[in-house]
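In this supplementary section we document a worked example of the pipeline. Step one takes a protein sequence of length 430 as its only input; no multiple sequence alignment statistics are reported here. Step two produces a three-dimensional model, which step three serialises into structure tokens for compact storage. The input and output of this example are shown verbatim.
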Amino acid sequence: MPSPKDILQVSEYDHITNDRLLKELTSLYLKDEKWSKFLKVQNSFAYFKHFVGTVQTGQFTVSILPKVWAKDDQIQEGTMKNLLRILLYTYLTPSLFNPETMISPRYERNDLFELLIMFYSITLEKELNQGMYRRYVRREEESRYLRGKLNLERQLNRLDKSVFDITDFRFSADNEMNRYFAYATNLFSTFTQDFRSLHLLTSIELLFQSEAVANHTLPIPVSFNRLNDRFQIPYNYADLIIKHLRPDPGNGKQAMMMLFDMNRVFQEFFVKFIKKNESVIFPEWAVRIEPQYENKNFIFNRSSALRFTIPDLWIEVQKEGVKKSFILDTKYKIIQDIKIEEGSEDPDDDVFKIAQSDLYQMFTYSDLYKANGTILVFPGGKTQISEPYNFKKDGLLLWVCMLRLDFNKDTWEKDLAEEFRKVFNKVASC
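The serialised model returned by step three reads:
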């Protein structure tokens, strides 16, 4: 069992002033430039940028939570559950396993890494208890016993005729999927601080060892079929963790970070939400939805294009022969309201106001794609939309939408889809 670490919870951009932790973070920051992507270090404080997740140093486990659910710089109860729901909704398919039923008050205070490890361990053990996945594996070998198919041509060329050159098929557990699980289980057991998870991971490791499953040092691509599809949920948990896990072996496997870019999470969540709830949001329209729609260049020199842009979501709707198109772009920023006001010279105000750079981007979209309207989508505590703004009074319109992100109710998806249906109807009626 790894030695227990001090646990600290912070939000994105919260200043960390703990002397011991600041010293360890500074050491990691200076030693490896990859940390600068996630971490900003000053003389007297450090903070994590727009990333959430878990960071382990030699002495600390730091849980970084989204600022969108913080209030007055205080982390609210239920923040971890909200974070889990947005991540699992966005990245896990299928999401048949309901982890919320397992989150006791103890786990609400735990970090994201430990929660995902726990879900992986429990779901994998459940499936292994029903039987390990096996398939026939072709194997060629030399044997003094004739069992399987004789490789006649090679056998005739052998000098020692007492040894047979044969091919046989074994119903084996040593296959790509189990090797992936063996790799993931070994990796996760290195960093977990939770006794229950470590116990489950150790039991799983011993089971794979008893079945002679090879433990590779890199994850292996896995194909699913009707025989192993039941393992897809633990595989999805493992894949989610591994894709965002960055071990630091230079620190004797004591330092690790598992971080999610909230800009990307919010964008991919919103796109998946719109596509999944298409029939609820656009019931009166024939609709076409294109994520990451066609990129278009907008700055050129004499010989080539220098800059291009690509919107998060392009929506085309048609009703009674009338066709309209709209561009939606997500911004994971905290704003106080949905009004566009005259800008300030203080760049820090952009944290709470709509940045001028975002407005320029939306105007560029309007000009390039000739859409009927563009919508800037921000996360918020309640869903609301601004009155339309004009670009140069030429008929191109902009709306600002604050999208409610509150996953505490089981009906959150249905409620949010209904709210956004009202938003879109208001936009499409202009």
